[in-house]
Amino acid sequence: xxxxxxxxxxxxxxxxxxxxxxxxxxxxxxxxxxxxxxxxxxxxxxxxxxxxxxxxxxxxxxxxxxxxxxxxxxxxxxxxxxxxxxxxxxxxxxxxxxxxxxxxxxxxxxxxxxxxxxxxxxxxxxxxxxxxxxxxxxxxxxxxxxxxxxxxxxxxxxxxxxxxxxxxxxxxxxxxxxxxxxxxxxxxxxxxxxxxxxxxxxxxxxxxxxxxxxxxxxxxxxxxxxxxxxxxxxxxxxxxxxxxxxxxxxxxxxxxxxxxxxxxxxxxxxxxxxxxxxxxxxxxxxxxxxxxxxxxxxxxxxxxxxxxxxxxxxxxxxxxxxxxxxxxxxxxxxxxxxxxxxxxxxxxxxxxxxxxxxxxxxxxxxxxxxxxxxxxxxxxxxxxxxxxxxxxxxxxxxxxxxxxxxxxxxxxxxxxxxxxxxxxxxxxxxxxxxxxxxxxxxxxxxxxxxxxxxxxxxxxxxxxxxxxxxxxxxxxxxxxxxxxxxxxxxxxxxxxxxxxxxxxxxxxxxxxxxxxxxxxxxxxxxxxxxxxxxxxxxxxxxxxxxxxxxxxxxxxxxxxxxxxxxxxxxxxxxxxxxxxxxxxxxxxxxxxxxxxxxxxxxxxxxxxxxxxxxxxxxxxx
Length: 621
Prior knowledge:
With 621 residues, the protein is of the alpha+beta class. The chain folds into 4 domains: 7-197 and 342-451, 3-Layer(bba) Sandwich (FAD/NAD(P)-binding domain); 202-339, Elongation Factor Tu (Ef-tu), domain 3 (Beta Barrel), CATH 2.40.30.260; 458-553, tRNA uridine 5-carboxymethylaminomethyl modification enzyme MnmG/GidA (Arc Repressor Mutant, subunit A, Orthogonal Bundle), CATH 1.10.10.1800; 567-618, Orthogonal Bundle (DNA polymerase, domain 1), CATH 1.10.150. The chain has 22 helices and 23 strands. The strands form 6 sheets. Strands 15-16-17-18-14-19 form a 6-stranded antiparallel β-sheet, with no helix packed on it. A hairpin with a 4-residue loop joins strand 8 and strand 9 (143-145). The longest helix has 23 residues, at 458-480.
């Protein structure tokens, strides 16, 4: 009935979809197993992609040939570039998506791939032989053979939904939990834990008085997540902003005695940076209001996502509090907010390829690793799918370094430091964020994707080569050609910038604050001529490269220093217990995580610089 598949992907959320697409685009035959074919790529929480650091991740996924950026572009209802007032390292694209269109587009892309098969069923266990995964067993008792397996179970592993004092088994509202996998993995020696996440109530937009709220329109110019020529919307839907108040807080407090979070019924830790409304009121008692975002779920629905009001309080308390928020006096709920607890596996049990230490060819990706967010899940899925495919081909895994991508930062953090609360990516987690900008993800990663054999990159490589050539040509011209005082001084003086008294390099002018390349084009004919036919993204790349040349050079020097440690390889089976001079904590952590290089070992929590020095001596360095 079934083939023996190269890669079996369990779960069809954001991680599972990217894992299946990546493995198939690496030439592998893939089986995608999901409990419900109607919820492939479901946006379980906020119908949005991107945001601070998350937008950079979506662009990196796209640069590697993933689909998240394409789907987001073609289903967005609003676009905003966050942090535009800050430097380009902080610019982060974010888009509201049409929830139903998003899932439909993902399914179309997956079904269009000839190497992806589907099966609707729950996976209840793994088939393991000689400490190597060889397939999965489904709830119907079927056995599907596979050379590798990627687990992307999301919040479904022994999922438990909390609404006030009610507890319902499930991985998402209206969907059952997955049972059996956790128990089997624990028997095999894996360590498991519990985490918690939550979601706000969904509202009926017909019952909202938007005139009492602040309008939040999208950017006038819509920009793409994808580096391909995707179709963008010709209009946008507005979001709105409202606020809680003291009366809302007082009503919510009446339900605290029935809150599963405060009564101890929820054991798992929730996301620190996306707390429930009751947690905000408790932790920030001095605040008399909290901001709420009223976000549309799509073009053809009145359903509204109330961002900032995640809650697990009883339904009646949620509703009563909502009616005291400006604009929501007559609100109707489609469904209440709820919290969900689920099993995860501390990611220190994985290698940097996301393959588990205990079972060969078994990979974990997404919330099973303790992360939160569609983008964090999607990039892990893509990397797990790539490495599962490389493993089948008996090739070396692809490991993105911290200096290569936010994806590399995320995986390195998870594997080396672990996480005891849902991990969310921020720009502050990356030490090389000037290098890891959203605008240059294609220049950083597309050649890597081509090198490992990712298919369907012909158009991307053509655009990559054109962009690289254009950026180099214009940058070199600006560095080697002069501007005349009579040409540029009126423009400089109009901006309060010092005029020049002799010819000056065009690059020197571009490097000044507030001086824009496009404005200089209008007054320097030779510059305008060289910029003809260059697209906006290439021109932006030139301007950033020139303005931030010194900072970029310093970060590249830091990367080169760190890369020296990355070249010192360590045998994964190295006996750290035999090194007397190592601290006991270092012995324990190194033995558990099994670092591949000295560089990786240096980033493990609990391993000191003195321990690294001892290791270098024992490795003969």
